[in-house]
Amino acid sequence: MRRIISILMENEPGALSRVVGLFSQRGYNIETLTVAPTEDSTLSRLTLTTIGDDRTIERITKHLNKLIEVVKLVDLTEGAHIERELMLIKVKATGAQRAEVKRTVDIFRGQIVDVTSSVYTVQLAGASDKLDAFIGAIGETQVLEVVRSGVSGIARGEKVLSI
Amino acid sequence: MEKLSGAEMVVRSLQEEGVEYLFGYPGGAVLHIYDAIFQQDKVKHILVRHEQAATHAADGYARATGKPGVVLVTSGPGATNAVTGIATAYMDSIPMIVISGQVRSDWIGDDAFQETDMVGICRPIVKHSFMVRDPAQIPEMMRKAFYLATTGRPGPVLIDIPKDKTAPHVKVPFEYPKKVKMRSYTPVTRGHAGQIRKALEELLKAKRPVIYAGGGVISGEASDLLTRLVRKLGYPVTNTLMGLGCYPATDKQFVGMLGMHGTYEANMAMHNADLIMAVGARFDDRATNDAGKYCPGATIVHIDVDPATISKNVRADVPIVGPVQQVLDDMLNMLDEHGGQPDQKALARWWEEIDGWRQVHGLRYETNDDGPMKPQQVVQALYKATNGDAYVTSDVGQHQMFAAQFYHFDKPRRWINSGGLGTMGFGLPAAMGVQFAFPDATVACVTGEGSIQMNIQELSTCLQYGLPVKIININNQALGMVRQWQDMQYGGRHSQSYMDSLPDFVKLAEAYGHVGIRVDKFEDLAPAMEKAFSLKDRLVFMDIYVDPSEHVYPMQIADGAMRDMWLSKTERT
Q1: Of A27, A102, B16, B261, which is the most exposed, with the fewest CB atoms less than 10 Å away?
Q2: Overall pTM > 0.90
Q3: What ipTM describes this predicted complex?
């Protein structure tokens, strides 16, 4: 099962490499990874997605918790949550396709953020499967370049991950 | 406030931590620190002959005393040579501080002379690591390193210090922090009372219980409590390789070591148990055989300070995360309050069954009056010569298993071996560390002609510091454990497992300034041992030739259950 693990950790050199290293060392997969400092500059928020059964996820979260620089973590997929991923995508847009691509972007509530005579650069945010669906709708042959941010997530309601 | 250089702060921090011995080897990146060491005499520096030995010596010191071992090495090869010793300590949860020099900070990343990314190399084999970015950080980092290494599940901590951060002319205010607080590190200090109660209820309900105790009982200083609990309940107790000594091996409730080369009765009791209480043990693959076939009828209680260990290899029915000492103490108190008694009838039947299993194998081996000596006889002679009261370090292989089976440890911290990583070359330097900690104690290193050659240069260190270690070299002219597997699984094809062109160990010992004794015949064994141990202030290297074809039994059958064992070359369960 796909899980979103959200980690609050010390914003210190080397902390990220310990998290990433743990996954390769113990043979777990990272599907996506995104990290940046929080409003408290001594803390970073790291969100990663991984795939595994309950037992594997339990082991992953226990080992992550053991890392000295990890302050707190939560498996967002255990409760109601919001997930978002940002995608910047360059799409071939010539002739009749220009209008078709524009329509698809509108349907997906994306924005065209850069234009040339033959290319649209589209910005799209949403859950990962929405981004997948957009690529599907455009057709892979039309896609020139894809940049995805990896998943960010936050719990719904009053639940807060903080120290 | 007093102002010190980075180098002086390193040494002062060690003094503040009460460090007696620093095991190390100098080099360019740590010269400032060595100069600061020269100008004081509180912390004694021990000069080894190879950095791996520095880590093993510090490790042996830590295992024997419970205090952290401290190591100082230079950058590059000095640091990488220490890696095996750091990994050894990590696998066995040994508290250790390793200070490594680093090239000056403005050269980091330039592939400078003797530059290695030590923090990167060590990431998977340390509990934590630091790199000093400012000399002012040194006192706090040192304090944190000692705190991390010795609390929770202990382990090695690395501090990498670029040379310019120890420069003698850069002085900064020094104050050693009394306490350290880390918001991201709070080791568990109490096990959950409800869980402990639940475990106790399971214990009292059990009809076929086994207490399975590991190295965590020793590092958690809980041997006395475990012994009290086990005696109070009257239950059988088994130890892992790392746990030997945490319960008196000569006691009738002790059923021996379990696992790959465990006793028949320990493995049978485990397989047939209806309750297993694991205390400070981690269900290592050498202790469980196939985890899928593991002890099918048993409810499993697991006490460990490390939550990541619980349900890692075998799922626990009653998990208790907490320090073994506190959990066992609470359990004993609850048992007193509870007033409950084990089912004595069922227990009597269970002991009857176990005593039956004790008759089956009993660590028997065949001796031959005319043939070569058996390695088991050597360990038995050692046990006799030392009245079972020595500190015994070992290397890795058959001799290690024979020592574990035939030297009966009645006290914790007496059996010192590399259980997790299985590091050949561990024994001699570890024995040095033990002898430094206890200068008057009898320290024996049980080794083989393969392992001893992996750190034999330390004979020179032993002479320099007058360490009267007794080396028991069980010489079968082969890498015995490799050979055993080749006999059993590779049709007797002894690929690269022979030891040809062995040195004359007696001459070698003498060349290093020590005493060497060669023993070929069994009748010479006991007198030779007696002579060796009577030389109280000399290192004696006993080179004892034994039967090269001997195997270690019992031996669990790969991918089987706990009860599946070879009992000799021809008999199996």
Answers
A1: A27
A2: yes
A3: 0.92
